[in-house]
Specification:
The chain is of the alpha/beta class. It is built from ten helices and five strands. A five-stranded parallel beta sheet has the order 2-1-3-4-5, sandwiched between helices. Helix 9 crosses helix 10.
Length: 223
């Protein structure tokens, strides 16, 4: 059975993606998640999933941080990024971070189906008009992505909560662990990210943020 993971917090668009998956793969098992935390749980249950459709904006996500982390932990998993962003630069950054496809949420159902089939066939699928398919990341973003990719799933959970402004006591409650365990995770996270305090941890996550710059929109999606 083909396992397809869909991570999007918007029920209507999550359903649209599910319908596209079923059209492309009638026998696929679709596993939904509405947050990064739920997605990490799914990945632990289905580490050999065949495809992930990942929204850039949902609870626990900080730009490309979830993409970078999951690519580091599950390098064989093809990831299709879906996003409200139409900017060419955002699409290029997603591909540079290892996405196999970039689907603007304005794309129609047929294009989503085409992207899913292309990625499962081992191809890269991109919106039309991107002259440099792979794009380039600046040195700071590349370094931040590599460090975030090195975190364990639990460390990544803690990092996203720190970036969201939660205190150790709140993180401990959310994860069902002791504050001492959270502090131990903090020590390991700061070492892996090469920073000295929780503010710098949050800034590392923000290095992969998606800015809503006034850039020319990428032309309509292509097959």
């Amino acid at each position: 059975m083909t396992d397809i993971l869909i991570a999007d917090d918007h029920p209507l668009f999550r359903d649209a993606l599910r319908r596209a998956v079923v059209t492309a793969l009638p026998d696929a098992a679709v596993r939904p998640a509405d947050s990064v935390q739920a997605l990490l749980g799914l990945l632990e249950q289905f580490p050999n999933a065949d495809l992930l459709l990942l929204d850039l904006h949902m609870p626990g996500a900080h730009g490309f941080s979830a993409l970078a982390h999951i690519r580091g932990q599950y390098p064989a998993l093809p990831i299709v990024v879906v996003s409200v962003h139409e900017e060419a630069r955002v699409a290029r950054r997603a591909l540079a971070h290892g996405a196999a496809a970039y689907i603007p949420k304005s794309a129609d159902g047929q294009d989503i189906v085409a992207a899913i089939r292309a990625v499962l066939d081992g191809e890269i699928w991109t919106p039309r008009g991107l002259l440099d398919v792979h794009g380039r990341l600046d040195a700071d973003e590349t370094a931040a992505a590599a460090r975030i990719a090195s975190l364990t799933p639990q460390q990544f959970r803690v990092m996203t909560m720190i970036a969201g402004g939660l205190l150790n006591k709140q993180i401990a409650y959310e994860l069902g662990v002791s504050e001492a365990t959270v502090k131990a995770h903090m020590t390991a996270i700061m070492r892996k990210l090469n920073v000295n305090n929780r503010t710098q941890v949050a800034l590392t996550a923000q290095a992969l943020a998606v800015e809503r710059d006034h850039l020319p929109a990428a032309p309509g999606a292509a097959r």
